[in-house]
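Components:
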Amino acid sequence: MRKSTTCLAAVAGVATLALAACGGVQNTAGGGSDSGDYPSGAVDMPVGASAGGSSDLISRQISRGLTDELGGTFPVINREGANGALAAAEVAKAKADGSTISVQNASLFTITPLAVSEDEATSIDDFDVVQGVSRDDYVLVASKGSGFTSIDDFAKADGKITYGTTGVGTGAQLACALTYNVNETPAEAIPFDGGAPALTALLGDQVDTACLQVGEAIENIKAGKIVPLSVFGPERVGFLPDVPTAKEQGLDVEVTQYRFMTVPKGTPQDVQDAIAEAMQATFETSTYQDFNETNNLTPLEIPGDEVKAMLEEDKQRYADLVEEYGIDLGNAG
Amino acid sequence: MDWNAFLDGFGVVTEPNNLLYCLIGVLIGMLIGVLPGLGPTATMAILLPIAYNASDPVSAIIMLAGIYYGAQYGGTITSVLLRIPGEASSVVTVFDGFALAKQGKAGTALGIAAIGSFVGATVSIIGLTFLGPIVAGYALDFGPPEYATLALLGVFMVASIGNGNTVKALIAAAVGLLLATVGSDSFTSANRYTFDTLQLQGGIDFVVVAMGLFGVGEILYNLEERHGKVHVPAAIANIWPSRKDLKEASPAIGRGSVIGFFLGVLPGGGAVMASLAAYATEKRVAKDKSRFGRGAIEGVAGPESANNAAATSSFIPLLTIGIPANASMAMLFTALLVVGVTPGPSLIDDNPELFWGVINSMYIGNLILLILSIPLVGVFVKILRVRPAILAPITALITILGVYTINNSVFDIFVMITFGIIGYLMKKTGFEPGPLVLAFVLGSLMESNFRRSMLIFDGDPTGFLTRPISGTILAFLLMVLLYPLVKLLFRRRTPATTPDTENHDQEAGLR
Amino acid sequence: MSERDTRAADEPDILAEIQAEVARELEEDRPPVGGPAYQVVAAIVVLVLGLAAAYLAQGYGLGTLQRPGPGLWPFAVSVLIAVLAVVLLVIGRRLEDAEKFSRASLLVLAGGATFVGLGVLLPTIGFEIPSVLLCMVWLRFLGGESWRSTIVIALATTATFYLLFLYALGIPLPHLIAF
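Structure:
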């Protein structure tokens, strides 16, 4: 027994060294520190997505920036599930002292409520919005095998067109559903668990088209494996300058995803200010700007109250559109 | 393929700096593999900042990749010694690995697993080197109908791999499928079996179920078993696999490696299917099927080779088409983005030194893993000399704290305890946890792909038969199901020529 | 494979096989078999589970094959469970794979209780004290170790976990002692 313990300790030692060599030992969670300055101890950053998705990447980038600016640690904790509702509920319930903060998705507040029952919908009123972060555009892409090169080609299709989405209640689903409904094309939504499986299905010609986030699709668009048909932002996306917006093609569809920093409702203003300032300082760094560039994210570094107004406006607009065209997001399949 | 780039890749790896990163990655991987709960994905997430800070991005990626495949081997150790499978793909290793350990042959099991892992991974890296892009294309032919039928085949394999009563195995598997539906439905976001608890909305984590049913169930069961008995330290027969073991295991290692390579390319569930298929194959080709579940060395060799081969070939979709096949690959995807490389079809042309550096580091990393694990097998085996009275609380703590770390959730601890008690009761009433856990993993794959298929087929189930791959899988399934019947008929007609070595219960158990 | 090889490999095998045989026998030194009542109760529990799950599932909405509802799949699986339970009820009475509960089964309850205790205490007072307590209960009362080794092992184990999780791996874990 003793021998194996020693061995374990030795292995642990190696790991410690490895960690210490690159960034230092983290003393996370629940420490008994009670000094006045923010942050005192570790600040949890739950993110409602699995490791590796855009939301996760952005959270980690912000976490790193906050650590650099404010000191302390900001561990990102992946709480996947229900398009972020699980993580949101955790943040809403957390102590409003800045010890739990979270970068959240607009779609959770603007689109998910259209798909789930009222009591399950997450309300923005449970949070204070601290700072806008960035925008992530959706793109409608077609598989090579489908033969579509523009939205006009849909008219030539015989039978239903299938479209992959990144899940129920996501912006990708809404964007696609609206496009097909406004264009009066018969189509069937096939929800996948996130962008990667939807992209895989599209590459394998399992679905005809799909709505994805630009960052997920761009490499395969550049390589010519899939064909971009439309983007859904108010203007064209800098990373895909040749792809027209839906509006340009005569379809009144505008859906974007954006992310912003939230804290539980009632978090002291000075804490919120400290976070916002640290984030703005992070936005100035070249590392962060490079990060946006590689991930095809458009900065949306606006103050929290503007984000909130935008959220409310989008929510109303989507609700109206969905009602007008009789789309039921919750019953995609 | 570009030989110069390939050889340059070796140049990259053998830089002392990169070798060191590779070693550290593999070591950390092994350590966290031994600790149940904390998987490679979480560790890679924790260590991601290294990618930001490393002077050379290739080093960081090599280290993170090392964590991933190091963890694959580490997970075997707990499966064999403590009956705690760290992840879905090592569940089947438990069956024969733990039985071998009980017979004092833990060293044999771990040794063969190490060799099998090495061979499996190496075969797979060679495959990746030469066939990567081709195989990636075939993975794309697998759409929802193919996954649905593959998962169906998997569930039937699950029910056939146990040693107990077939009806009970089927019940356990069906309960596993049912448990997989707990949580928010990904098609309609309706809540199913969540009983208004938010924590259940995201579903139940595999590790929580597996550690409960296997780990905690075993600990509790032993508590009762041990009572009033004098502990006889397990005789450790031989630490190293004998030549006979090697001879018995090598065909299994070969088959496992190939199965693993091909199934591992499929994103989502590939590694589980691989280990399952390898086990089922070994059991089917074996002359004496009754040895399985009681310490058949092929039962460790096949699946272990397969899951390591699969772990390696799951790099293929990431590196060639930019699709992460599992959560760990998604982490690696992230790391690549962090260092400014977007994985995609053009990776091999744009960043050959990275592409080949990472692939070639796997040759070296697996070699390091093999060299490391040989002395470590001796050390780990000694754990079995520890009195169960001492080992039990330590195992208990590992499972509880390990489960907590998955989601930082106390709720998960209670779910695990519940499954622990269920596992104990199952053992008392003759149900095996294996089919339940494996069906649980396959359940969501099966349901969501079945539903996707029905949407694609517009409600017409004959679509499964008319697509070439799913049709073939279904035909194969039918053949496997009917085979025992046909064989029985055949045997009745020619009783003299067929040696009747198999016992009939077993035959029934295969159905 | 040459014949000499086979023979050379055979010799140590006989030993190994005998050992395996002994081990197998030891393994099969199991408690008395539980009677038909065990099988019947188990089958009925499964049946109830299947029926209850099926009832809940149809409440989620079955939909159609064309557009499967959220309840269709769980409903099908639950019905399958119920059917299998009935089959087990019919054919399983004489199975001998159940084990009788004995007085020692109460130990399992005690063991389970320590798990629950740790889970309850973890978020409030950190993991150290409950871990030491759990080890002590298991070592001294459930395992019959001496007090001396109980204390040493309990403390050493907890300390090792402390270092491993918080320092070596840097994983968040509620803890009391902070440096």
